[in-house]
From TrEMBL:
CDD domains: ASKHA_NBD_eukNAGK-like. It comes from Oceanobacillus halophilus. This is ATPase BadF/BadG/BcrA/BcrD type domain-containing protein. Residues 8-303 form the ATPase BadF/BadG/BcrA/BcrD type domain. The lineage of its organism: Bacteria, Bacillati, Bacillota, Bacilli, Bacillales.
Length: 327
């Protein structure tokens, strides 16, 4: 058994959850991966079981002990409301973690992965979309967007996929422009006629993810200069820039916070470069960061910072080296 204090960070998204354990010097000692822990889309029993399994795994793999844990820092999607955080807190009542637990939205982890826990703004564009800003002078966390696919998620992968399907349906009706997307969407969903889209989408166990999965096709068509696809991507970027701008305005500060980009859409070089160009044109001289480390490391960094541990160059170097070693 290895002695010494330990910190656990966890990033729980809509599709998977990652957990790491490390020491105060930035050495990542173990990692575990599991299913989604979004409390909005999974049962409480499922979420609790996954959380405890991943925690137990990193403790065991690092040859540590529960008593070594100084902070358990959970950054979980679907935990933005106080009521949801209270539900998760209840999972840990009566356990050794009850009084060392912190629960935040998963956007905090994504931001910290890019800024090492320093203040800034993060824009996340994956299946959904959300922007988050941290203003240390007010000890404030500002959230903009992230209201889910029924009411929000503008500019997200789901939004792009939905707009593409709508455009294909309108073109079929003769009330929209002819677009390359019609053939692309039919091929992708393996249908012969456009109306079959309705049964294919509604018949899927997760229509939201099914629709979002079409986003890369729209990006490819836009890159090939299809006018309809280009317009969809342009609107998506404008929506995301609006999230960033609204976050910045609500932070009520003249400081030029760095802006961290995160999410599946930004892994596409065409989308990323176009977005960064449009953002700079809209907001002027901004520092854009695409993290080299995943959000789970951001959660671990926040765990260290919660105990006032300085994230200096040595800690940053240790984190990067040890994470790369694990992977």
């Amino acid at each position: 058994m290895i002695n010494g204090k330990r910190w656990i960070g966890m990033d729980g998204g809509g599709t998977k959850t990652q957990c790491v354990i490390g020491d105060e010097k930035g050495q990542i000692l173990a990692m575990s991966i599991g299913e989604s822990t979004n409390i909005q889309s999974n049962s409480h029993t499922h979420v609790k079981a996954v959380l405890f399994r991943l925690i137990d795994e990193v403790i065991r793999e690092s040859d540590s002990n529960e008593s070594h844990i100084e902070t358990l820092y959970l950054c979980l999607s679907g935990s933005g409301r106080a009521k949801d955080r209270e539900t998760i807190e209840d999972f840990f009542k009566g356990t050794i973690y009850e009084n060392i637990l912190s629960i935040e939205n998963d956007a905090i982890a994504a931001l910290a992965a890019g800024t090492w826990g320093e203040p800034g703004i993060v824009i996340i564009a994956g299946t959904g979309s959300i922007a988050y800003g941290i203003n240390p002078s007010k000890m404030d966390a500002i959230r903009v967007g992230g209201w889910g696919y029924l009411f929000g998620d503008e500019g997200s992968g789901y939004w792009i996929g939905k707009r593409a399907i709508q455009s294909v349906l309108k073109a079929y009706d003769g009330r929209g422009d002819v677009t390359e997307l019609s053939h692309i969407i039919k091929d992708y969903f393996r249908i012969k006629e456009v109306p079959e889209l309705i049964s294919v989408i509604h018949g899927d166990p997760n229509p939201r993810l099914k629709i979002a999965s079409a986003a890369p096709l729209v990006l490819n068509a836009a890159e090939r200069s299809d006018p309809v696809a280009k317009n969809i991507i342009h609107e998506a970027m404008e929506n995301l820039i609006n999230l960033v701008d609204s976050t910045k305005q609500r932070m009520q500060s003249r400081d030029k916070w760095p802006i961290v980009i995160h999410g599946g859409l930004f892994s596409n070089s065409f989308f990323r470069e176009q977005f960064m160009s449009k953002l700079k044109s809209s907001m002027g001289d901004v520092t854009l960061i695409q993290p080299n480390l995943p959000p789970v490391i951001g959660a671990y960094i926040m765990a260290l910072r919660s105990k006032d541990i300085l994230i200096d160059d040595e800690v940053q170097s240790n984190v990067t080296w040890s994470w790369n070693l694990l992977n």
